[in-house]
Specification:
Blueprint lengths: L4 E8 L6 E7 L16 E5 L20
Antiparallel strand pairs: 1-2, 1-3
């Protein structure tokens, strides 16, 4: 496996552009853990050109954000 840095991005409806959440590094930081809560639609993405990045989580319909 080649050494590669991968940027992770997040975009919410209220933002005009996506924002960087963090960077993965295939050798030093192969995974990140985030606890994120949103009450509106959002989009996650990455800039990796080959291979894949996996996201997992859940949607709770009746969440109350303060």
């Amino acid at each position: 496996m080649e050494h590669e840095s991968v940027k992770l991005f997040l975009k919410k409806e209220a933002w005009k552009e996506k924002r960087m959440m963090g960077t993965l590094d295939t050798k030093r930081i192969p995974q990140h853990k985030f606890n994120l809560f949103f009450n509106k639609n959002f989009e996650v993405s990455h800039d990796r050109t080959q291979g894949s990045v996996h996201y997992f989580g859940f949607i709770k319909k009746d969440i109350q954000c303060k």
